Amino acid sequence: MATVSVYNMEGNEVGTIDLNDAVFGVDVNEHLVHMAVVAQLANKRQGTQKAKTRSEVSGGGRKPWRQKGTGHARQGSTRAPQWTGGGVVFAPTPRDYTIRLNKKEKRLALKSALTSRVLENKLIVVDELKFDEVKTKNFANVMNNLKASKALVVLNENDANVVLSARNIPTVKTALTNTINVYDILKYNTVIVTKAAVATIEEVYA
Predict the structure, then answer these.
(1) Taking the model in full, what pTM does it have?
(2) Which residues does the annotated region (Disordered) include (predicted)?
(3) Tell me, which fold does domain 3-45+100-205 have in CATH?
Protein backbone atom coordinates (compact mmCIF):
# COMPACT_ATOMS: atom_id res chain seq x y z
CA MET A 1 0.00 0.00 0.00
CA ALA A 2 1.56 3.29 -1.11
CA THR A 3 1.80 6.09 1.42
CA VAL A 4 1.96 9.67 0.14
CA SER A 5 2.20 13.00 1.90
CA VAL A 6 -0.79 15.29 2.32
CA TYR A 7 -0.19 19.02 1.81
CA ASN A 8 -2.20 22.12 2.61
CA MET A 9 -2.74 25.08 0.30
CA GLU A 10 0.43 26.71 1.61
CA GLY A 11 2.49 23.74 0.40
CA ASN A 12 3.26 22.46 3.91
CA GLU A 13 3.04 18.76 4.71
CA VAL A 14 0.22 18.17 7.19
CA GLY A 15 0.08 14.38 7.24
CA THR A 16 0.10 11.22 5.15
CA ILE A 17 -2.48 9.05 3.47
CA ASP A 18 -2.47 5.37 2.51
CA LEU A 19 -3.61 4.76 -1.05
CA ASN A 20 -5.62 1.67 -1.90
CA ASP A 21 -3.54 -0.73 -4.00
CA ALA A 22 -6.69 -1.84 -5.81
CA VAL A 23 -6.75 1.59 -7.48
CA PHE A 24 -3.34 3.21 -7.06
CA GLY A 25 -1.15 0.10 -6.97
CA VAL A 26 -2.16 -2.10 -9.91
CA ASP A 27 0.17 -3.54 -12.53
CA VAL A 28 0.38 -0.86 -15.22
CA ASN A 29 -1.05 -2.16 -18.50
CA GLU A 30 0.49 0.15 -21.10
CA HIS A 31 -1.41 -1.48 -23.95
CA LEU A 32 -4.79 -0.75 -22.35
CA VAL A 33 -3.70 2.81 -21.51
CA HIS A 34 -2.76 3.32 -25.16
CA MET A 35 -6.10 1.89 -26.32
CA ALA A 36 -7.99 4.19 -23.95
CA VAL A 37 -6.18 7.29 -25.22
CA VAL A 38 -6.69 6.32 -28.87
CA ALA A 39 -10.38 5.63 -28.21
CA GLN A 40 -10.92 8.95 -26.44
CA LEU A 41 -9.26 10.98 -29.18
CA ALA A 42 -11.09 9.06 -31.90
CA ASN A 43 -14.45 9.51 -30.19
CA LYS A 44 -13.97 13.29 -30.14
CA ARG A 45 -13.86 13.39 -33.95
CA GLN A 46 -17.06 14.59 -35.59
CA GLY A 47 -16.59 12.59 -38.76
CA THR A 48 -18.63 15.10 -40.79
CA GLN A 49 -16.03 15.85 -43.47
CA LYS A 50 -17.41 15.62 -47.00
CA ALA A 51 -16.26 16.41 -50.53
CA LYS A 52 -17.95 15.60 -53.83
CA THR A 53 -16.74 12.97 -56.24
CA ARG A 54 -17.08 13.34 -60.02
CA SER A 55 -20.45 11.61 -59.82
CA GLU A 56 -21.79 14.24 -57.40
CA VAL A 57 -20.61 17.58 -58.85
CA SER A 58 -22.96 19.36 -61.22
CA GLY A 59 -22.42 19.61 -64.95
CA GLY A 60 -20.12 17.71 -67.23
CA GLY A 61 -22.80 15.67 -68.94
CA ARG A 62 -21.59 16.25 -72.50
CA LYS A 63 -18.24 15.21 -73.93
CA PRO A 64 -16.36 18.57 -74.25
CA TRP A 65 -14.96 17.83 -77.74
CA ARG A 66 -14.81 14.95 -80.13
CA GLN A 67 -12.48 12.06 -79.44
CA LYS A 68 -10.04 12.58 -82.32
CA GLY A 69 -8.68 15.30 -84.55
CA THR A 70 -8.64 18.32 -82.24
CA GLY A 71 -5.05 18.11 -81.00
CA HIS A 72 -6.34 18.00 -77.40
CA ALA A 73 -6.07 15.00 -75.14
CA ARG A 74 -9.25 12.96 -75.16
CA GLN A 75 -11.78 14.03 -72.51
CA GLY A 76 -15.11 12.57 -71.54
CA SER A 77 -16.35 15.16 -69.04
CA THR A 78 -15.49 18.64 -67.79
CA ARG A 79 -16.08 17.38 -64.25
CA ALA A 80 -13.27 14.81 -64.25
CA PRO A 81 -10.78 15.34 -61.36
CA GLN A 82 -8.15 17.09 -63.51
CA TRP A 83 -10.57 19.88 -64.48
CA THR A 84 -11.19 23.02 -62.46
CA GLY A 85 -14.52 22.45 -60.75
CA GLY A 86 -14.17 18.71 -61.15
CA GLY A 87 -14.84 16.10 -58.50
CA VAL A 88 -12.31 15.02 -55.86
CA VAL A 89 -10.54 11.69 -56.26
CA PHE A 90 -11.31 9.36 -53.31
CA ALA A 91 -13.27 12.17 -51.65
CA PRO A 92 -13.83 11.92 -47.87
CA THR A 93 -17.34 10.97 -46.79
CA PRO A 94 -19.02 11.18 -43.37
CA ARG A 95 -18.05 8.29 -41.13
CA ASP A 96 -18.16 7.20 -37.50
CA TYR A 97 -14.75 7.06 -35.80
CA THR A 98 -16.10 5.59 -32.56
CA ILE A 99 -13.91 3.04 -30.79
CA ARG A 100 -15.52 1.15 -27.92
CA LEU A 101 -13.75 -0.39 -24.95
CA ASN A 102 -15.22 -2.84 -22.49
CA LYS A 103 -16.14 -1.50 -19.06
CA LYS A 104 -13.40 -3.57 -17.39
CA GLU A 105 -10.84 -2.32 -19.90
CA LYS A 106 -11.78 1.30 -19.20
CA ARG A 107 -11.51 0.80 -15.44
CA LEU A 108 -8.14 -0.96 -15.64
CA ALA A 109 -6.77 1.69 -18.00
CA LEU A 110 -7.79 4.44 -15.56
CA LYS A 111 -6.26 2.55 -12.62
CA SER A 112 -3.06 2.02 -14.62
CA ALA A 113 -2.85 5.75 -15.39
CA LEU A 114 -3.36 6.67 -11.72
CA THR A 115 -0.80 4.07 -10.61
CA SER A 116 1.77 5.42 -13.08
CA ARG A 117 1.35 8.89 -11.58
CA VAL A 118 1.94 7.49 -8.08
CA LEU A 119 5.04 5.57 -9.20
CA GLU A 120 6.46 8.70 -10.85
CA ASN A 121 5.73 10.83 -7.74
CA LYS A 122 3.47 13.04 -9.81
CA LEU A 123 0.38 12.66 -7.65
CA ILE A 124 -0.09 15.35 -4.99
CA VAL A 125 -2.77 15.01 -2.31
CA VAL A 126 -4.06 18.17 -0.65
CA ASP A 127 -6.25 18.26 2.44
CA GLU A 128 -8.68 20.70 0.80
CA LEU A 129 -9.04 23.44 -1.81
CA LYS A 130 -11.22 26.30 -0.62
CA PHE A 131 -11.38 29.93 -1.72
CA ASP A 132 -13.49 32.74 -0.29
CA GLU A 133 -13.63 34.50 -3.66
CA VAL A 134 -12.99 33.91 -7.34
CA LYS A 135 -9.42 35.06 -7.89
CA THR A 136 -6.98 33.52 -10.37
CA LYS A 137 -4.01 34.88 -8.44
CA ASN A 138 -4.98 32.89 -5.36
CA PHE A 139 -5.09 29.65 -7.33
CA ALA A 140 -1.77 30.48 -9.01
CA ASN A 141 -0.23 30.95 -5.56
CA VAL A 142 -1.45 27.50 -4.50
CA MET A 143 0.11 25.99 -7.63
CA ASN A 144 3.40 27.70 -6.82
CA ASN A 145 3.25 26.50 -3.23
CA LEU A 146 2.76 22.92 -4.43
CA LYS A 147 5.53 23.36 -7.04
CA ALA A 148 3.16 22.29 -9.80
CA SER A 149 2.97 23.94 -13.21
CA LYS A 150 0.91 21.87 -15.63
CA ALA A 151 -1.66 20.11 -13.48
CA LEU A 152 -4.97 18.26 -13.48
CA VAL A 153 -6.87 19.22 -10.34
CA VAL A 154 -9.41 16.61 -9.22
CA LEU A 155 -12.19 17.82 -6.93
CA ASN A 156 -14.77 15.79 -5.06
CA GLU A 157 -17.56 18.30 -5.63
CA ASN A 158 -18.10 21.25 -7.93
CA ASP A 159 -16.78 24.28 -6.02
CA ALA A 160 -17.48 27.32 -8.19
CA ASN A 161 -14.80 29.48 -6.54
CA VAL A 162 -12.09 26.88 -7.20
CA VAL A 163 -13.20 26.07 -10.75
CA LEU A 164 -13.56 29.72 -11.81
CA SER A 165 -10.27 30.70 -10.16
CA ALA A 166 -8.45 27.99 -12.15
CA ARG A 167 -10.25 28.58 -15.43
CA ASN A 168 -7.97 31.36 -16.67
CA ILE A 169 -4.76 29.40 -16.08
CA PRO A 170 -4.00 27.69 -19.42
CA THR A 171 -1.86 24.94 -17.86
CA VAL A 172 -4.48 23.87 -15.32
CA LYS A 173 -7.64 21.83 -15.76
CA THR A 174 -10.18 21.00 -13.07
CA ALA A 175 -12.22 17.81 -13.07
CA LEU A 176 -14.63 15.99 -10.80
CA THR A 177 -14.07 12.41 -9.69
CA ASN A 178 -16.70 11.19 -12.14
CA THR A 179 -15.17 12.99 -15.13
CA ILE A 180 -11.50 12.01 -14.85
CA ASN A 181 -10.10 10.13 -17.82
CA VAL A 182 -6.87 8.48 -18.93
CA TYR A 183 -5.98 11.15 -21.51
CA ASP A 184 -6.12 14.05 -19.05
CA ILE A 185 -4.22 12.13 -16.35
CA LEU A 186 -1.36 11.51 -18.78
CA LYS A 187 -1.54 14.91 -20.51
CA TYR A 188 -0.77 16.95 -17.39
CA ASN A 189 2.57 16.69 -15.58
CA THR A 190 0.99 16.55 -12.15
CA VAL A 191 -2.30 15.26 -10.76
CA ILE A 192 -3.50 17.20 -7.70
CA VAL A 193 -6.24 15.41 -5.76
CA THR A 194 -8.11 16.43 -2.62
CA LYS A 195 -8.40 13.91 0.23
CA ALA A 196 -12.14 13.73 -0.28
CA ALA A 197 -11.64 13.02 -4.00
CA VAL A 198 -9.17 10.19 -3.20
CA ALA A 199 -11.77 8.58 -0.93
CA THR A 200 -14.44 8.82 -3.63
CA ILE A 201 -12.16 7.40 -6.34
CA GLU A 202 -11.22 4.46 -4.11
CA GLU A 203 -14.86 3.85 -3.27
CA VAL A 204 -15.91 3.80 -6.93
CA TYR A 205 -13.00 1.94 -8.51
CA ALA A 206 -11.71 -0.36 -5.77
Answers:
(1) 0.82
(2) 43-85
(3) Ribosomal Protein L4; Chain: A; (3.40.1370)
